[in-house]
């Protein structure tokens, strides 16, 4: 068995200690009480500016800014990242996936800690043309996830392209930074125009994005080295993903933010596990890349036609397996569970018990879950397993099929 590296213990232990201390000291409520009032005031003060911008509303501008928002949305990246893996740019794909997970978790944590509102509608007109935007509107406002993700992912993409091509020309670098800055500004303005965010949300997303990007540029090589050649990678990341579920703060009122974070947490787990186990076979730096003689565009289209249905099938199957197995495992360990969406029968069983028939909590439940919760939402575990299975298929099952079909 590989020896446990000291920093792994520090990371996992630090998260566990934070979970305990933050629960005992009510850290989330304390931070919220200090930040929510003045952030809310800034949102209210920024409403007249949004109204002035929306006076110039036009259907063509609506379509343009909606398109901009869709291009930098979570569903877009969810579809784009598998294609990046299959195009042969595996290092860029896994680093952008982990960065996306980092951004999503951090941004959503801050949203639910502060629990600051979006601009009030009315008087602001909220333009939501897609189901994704309607769901986004149910989240809290600060920071703007679109701005945060655009800063980090477009900034890192520019850095990777310049480094990969060994471009050190100051003029080219300045041009790249200018393009990224203009794109970020356009996205931020689009979110204000659409009535989805106030100026303070955009500034918060920009500042947080620059901070995360700066940190990621310092550590991404070390993170990638650990993933492809480190010790205890799969076990470490599984424990890491599990602890992050409990490190997530409780919002003032329920929002979809935790669902998004759990999904990307599962994606990161599946990607890391799959890459670590099959790096030398499918993900090394010598794999064929798109637009080379070995991987021309028609061949890549063939990969898409095979790969996309496969990962969707795996997503469906992993969800079905998780819905069946996780409640059984929870019952075996004496952990009381409920389900908000996926397994309604659990709630029927729970509400159908007589007061004296409630199952006593096991020692595992008492040791791991010291909070006052009576039961835990099994949907969280199902979602984690579902997206971990999907991501694992992207980097393991689908490349195996490509190899078998000579794609």
UniProtKB/TrEMBL annotation:
Start and end residues of each Phosphatidic acid phosphatase type 2/haloperoxidase domain: 93-217
Keyword terms of this UniProt record: Endoplasmic reticulum, Hydrolase, Membrane, Transmembrane, Transmembrane helix
First-listed, main subcellular location of the protein, grouped into a coarse class: endoplasmic reticulum
Gene3D superfamilies, sorted: Phosphatidic acid phosphatase type 2/haloperoxidase (1.20.144.10)
GO MF, one example: sphingosine-1-phosphate phosphatase activity
GO cellular component, one term: endoplasmic reticulum membrane
CDD domains: PAP2_SPPase1
InterPro entries the UniProt entry points to: PAP2/HPO, PAP2/HPO_sf
Membrane topology listed for this record: Multi-pass membrane protein
Ranges that cross the membrane: 6-27, 60-86, 146-162, 174-193, 199-219, 226-248
Similarity field: Belongs to the type 2 lipid phosphate phosphatase family.
UniProt-recorded name of the protein: Phosphatase
């Amino acid at each position: 068995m590989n020896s446990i590296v000291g920093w792994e213990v520090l990371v996992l232990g630090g998260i566990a200690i934070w979970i305990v201390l933050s629960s005992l000291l009510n850290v989330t409520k304390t931070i919220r009480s200090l930040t929510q009032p003045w952030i809310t005031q800034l949102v209210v003060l920024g409403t007249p500016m949004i109204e002035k911008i929306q006076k110039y509303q036009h259907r063509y501008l609506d379509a343009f800014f909606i398109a901009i928002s869709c291009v930098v949305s979570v569903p877009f990246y969810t579809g784009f990242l598998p294609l990046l893996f299959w195009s042969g740019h595996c290092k860029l794909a896994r680093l952008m996936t982990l960065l996306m997970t980092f951004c999503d978790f951090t941004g959503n944590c801050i949203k639910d800690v502060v629990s600051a509102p979006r601009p009030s509608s009315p008087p602001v007109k909220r333009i939501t043309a897609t189901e994704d935007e309607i769901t986004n509107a149910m989240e809290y406002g600060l920071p703007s996830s679109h701005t945060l993700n655009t800063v980090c992912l477009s900034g890192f993409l520019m850095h990777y392209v310049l480094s990969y091509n060994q471009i050190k020309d100051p003029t080219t670098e300045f041009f790249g930074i200018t393009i990224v800055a203009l794109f970020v500004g356009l996205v931020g303005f689009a979110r204000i125009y659409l009535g989805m965010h106030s100026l303070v949300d955009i500034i918060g997303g920009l500042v947080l994005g620059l901070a995360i990007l700066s940190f990621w540029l310092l550590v991404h090589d070390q993170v990638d080295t650990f993933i492809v050649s480190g010790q205890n990678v799969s076990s470490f990341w599984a424990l890491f993903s599990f602890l992050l579920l409990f490190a997530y703060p409780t919002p003032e009122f329920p929002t979809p933010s935790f669902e998004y974070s759990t999904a990307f947490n599962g994606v990161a787990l599946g990607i890391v596990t799959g890459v670590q186990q099959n790096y030398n076979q499918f993900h090394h730096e010598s794999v064929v890349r798109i637009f080379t003689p070995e991987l021309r565009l028609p061949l890549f289209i063939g990969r898409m036609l095979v790969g996309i249905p496969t990962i969707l099938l795996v997503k469906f199957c992993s969800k079905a397996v998780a819905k069946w197995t996780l409640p059984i495992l929870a019952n075996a360990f004496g952990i009381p569970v409920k389900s908000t969406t996926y397994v309604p029968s659990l709630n029927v069983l729970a509400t159908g018990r007589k007061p004296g028939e409630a199952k006593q909590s096991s020692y595992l439940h008492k040791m791991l879950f010291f909070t006052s919760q009576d039961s835990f939402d099994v949907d969280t575990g199902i979602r984690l397993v579902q997206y971990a299975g999907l991501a694992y298929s992207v980097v393991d099952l689908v490349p195996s099929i490509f190899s078998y079909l000579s794609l």
